[in-house]
Amino acid sequence: MSIKKIDHIAIVVEELERALGVYRDALGMAVTDVREMPEQDVKMAFLPTGDSEIELLEPLSAESGIGRYLAKRGEGLHHICLEVDDIEATLADLKAKGAQLIDETPKQGAYGRIAFIHPKGAHGVLIELVERT
Amino acid sequence: MSIKKIDHIAIVVEELERALGVYRDALGMAVTDVREMPEQDVKMAFLPTGDSEIELLEPLSAESGIGRYLAKRGEGLHHICLEVDDIEATLADLKAKGAQLIDETPKQGAYGRIAFIHPKGAHGVLIELVERT
Asked: Measured between CB atoms, does A133 come within 8 Å of chain B?
């Protein structure tokens, strides 16, 4: 099992357009896509850099997971995503080592199979794992 | 001006050794260095992956900036660092565009010249910029 790279960093914001004023306009990062993902109740902007990506997330509703997070914690870093070779082997290994998983089996994400590790089991960091397909 | 990549993600933890139990032992990430940086009042572990790095920070004292952050916010994501070509041009550009800077001029960091953007000006994210030398 191995971690290949930081796939992306996700940042929760109140309004995508205002956040792009910093990340795109002031910092000069390229935006490859902005789209609504109704199944996750978010609108996302993708800003690739190096072999990773910054993803900005705006909740589509206050009741969504991201909407509740924003209300409770405010804008800021939400999670990091690590790309792995073999997500099933990684999850089995983590489970054997006592890590606290949100997803014990992978689910289908936008660009591969994904699973989340609980922040309680990762020193306060919500970690997503992705095996890209 | 351009952002080259995510240089690193910094995570504040209570105890480096316990955090390495997750990041090194359970996730299988390599640790290239663990060292005390007394001038920043932290002990750090460096875990490179892809063209970025995860840095774990343990405060050396409760009164340090990181120590106070830990007491207030708990363990978790602390800042992201973006590598730039020309830190002076980037800071001038950010200032002209009204970004809130912690450092208006670069200071010497461990591996290049660095400056921080205030989280209030970056939608809740503490952003470090580095021009590696």
From this structure: no
What is the pLDDT confidence band of residue B39, given thresholds at 50, 70 and 90?
A: confident
pLDDT-derived band at B109, boundaries 50, 70, 90: confident
The third-level CATH classification (topology) of the domain covering B3-132 is: 2,3-Dihydroxybiphenyl 1,2-Dioxygenase; domain 1 (3.10.180)
Instruction: Say how far apart CA A76 and CA A67 lie, in whole Å.
Output: 13
Q: How many helices (H) and strands (E) does chain B have?
A: 3, 8
Where along chain A do its domains lie?
3-132
In percent, the amount of chain B with pLDDT more than 90 equals 89
Scanning A30-59 for CB atoms below 8 A from B yields: 49-52, 54
Supply the ipTM of this predicted assembly: 0.94
What is the pTM for the complete model shown? 0.95
Q: Are B119 and A76 within 8 A, CB to CB? A: yes
d(CA B76, CA B86): 30
Distance CA B37, CA B24 (A): 21
